[in-house]
Amino acid sequence: MGKTIAQKIIASHLIAGSMTPGSEVALRIDQTLTQDATGTMAYLEFETMGIPRVKTELSIAYVDHNTLQCGFENSDDHRYLQTVTAKHGVHFSRPGNGICHQVHLERFGKPGKTLIGSDSHTPTGGGIGMLAFGAGGLDVAVAMGGGAYYITMPKMIKVNLTGKLNPYVTAKDVSLELLRILSVKGGVGNIVEWGGPGIETLSVPERGTITNMGTELGATTSIFPSDEITRAFLAAQGREEDYVPLASDPDAEYDRIIDIDLSTLKPMIACPHSPDNVVTVESLKDVKVDQVCIGSCTNSSLYDLLKVAAMLKGKTVHPSVSLSVSPGSRQVLTMLANCGALSDILASGARVLECACGPCIGMGFSPNSGGVSLRTFNRNFLGRSGTKDGQVYLVSPETAVAAALTGYITDPTTFTEPLDIQMPEKFLINDSAVLAPLPADEAVNAEVLRGPNIKEFPKSKAFTDSLTAQLVLKVGDNITTDHIMPAGAKILPYRSNIPYLSKFCFEVCDPSFSERAKAAGDGIIVGGSNYGQGSSREHAALVPMYLGIRGVIAKSFARIHVANLINAGILPMTFENPADYDKLSQDAKLTINDIYGGMEKGVLTVTADDGFQFNVICNLTQRQRSILLAGGLLNYTKEGGL
Ligand code: MIC
Ligand code: SF4
To answer: Could you tell me the pTM of the whole model?
Structure first.
């Protein structure tokens, strides 16, 4: 039987396991990336492992999330990252150089290679034919140390594109359409492979938009073939030698095939507060808009911003709208400046922000109370913008500009001027903001600078054979990592300070959670389906662990989060009978006996203090059981398991 692209890359990087969907495979990792918000913890973990130098082909640390320096915390963390990376063989992309995924696509991504990153949108690399996964910081630390990355072998979905996008309809609309079809759970356990004649009409940055948004489907990753378009992009970035062709075999088999005719698509919009809450832009056309934000790792490429500049040229932003534009990288910003497009953006009245994540993660530019904000980003989870009652919609750059100019949600296809964007044959290349690590002999004595914001890594407990714990929180479906461990300008600087961060855990759902969990001692959380969707932040597991959470019982879990729970030593369990969810109430005392035997069998019995008994499934591999029994991946790794 022929192979899909993903299966080919997995086969060539397979260290252990069988490529049967559902079983665990261990992969060799060629490249790693971190960003600052997850990176501080990842390098602290790497240091604990005691390995002097990374063993990957390339490891790079970006600083793009925590670039607001309102106090010493972020500046100290930047210095820590710069010095710890220099010492251990990791490249360092300085603050202001751009958003990790955008810069990685431009300068470092290579078709056919494996990449893991401590950020859930690492699959953006699939736009250039990489097999790229979002992972928890500890998994990235282990990969930097030469250890394997473990995933459950996914099933394969093929999206077959035909036709060509109409003017003012974009790659973002393709992503939103797929979210409409599949929902935020529809990709769980799958790799989404894009193919068909329609892909020949999509440039690498457009493909990157699509693979980036694949994360919102819950997919393990997404990937495009590596073809002449990939070669041309790499050549324009001055690195044609990185090109290798990659295609699926003609007889490759897929578990599901979805056909999309690009020429039939309309501009789409995701309504508050979920990326799959998708309708046509046209259907919302009279909604008044307060704010428009253009940028993020989804839509901040030169191609996107040249279109934005062309639409804004000679026009003025509507007086009741506040427009921000954050270019994805220094390369994008410099090229916009050199060709005059930046002047068109500025002249329209837009506020140009730093090349960073910015408003996407609530780092400034929060909307006004109850404000309607149209964003070219990938997530509109409740509270993420920093304004609790903000109404965030996700759109393409074209739809964003149409709203910025008219003051209302407006279908951009009502604009009739042709958008004729000429992409340069060569991108401007200046990697001076990427610092190479120190040579090994100098690195030995190099000092790592740590600020007072860095606090000790929390200690997790190993499991004994029985556990009695309080059900401290019961939540519903699609709980995101932004619910569990919110981000934003006020909290994000404390990612290396778990005790402080813990005060905000589940704040969006229940501000008393943190205090109650601490008071309860051992705790259990009960959730609905797709628990932990969204970010790769391991803090959404480390902080609950710090607060005494020993297990989470849910109807189903999101992939990266369940791995992070295990890494933190928290037992993930799913209801054998989902109807049992309704029979549990917050504050019940739950007892689980015979944990060792039950883990082995994959089924545990839980008894509530009112006598109600139910079964939960814990399908764990031998390795995962050993991690839990050791009290988490760090302990397991220290004890010699890799
Ligand atoms: C996000 O988009 O939610 C983030 C912030 O980039 C996260 C990483 C983090 O929480 O630091 C992600 O997507 O993994
Ligand atoms: Fe940054 Fe937003 Fe992309 Fe996350 S989704 S990496 S916060 S731009």
So the answer is: 0.97
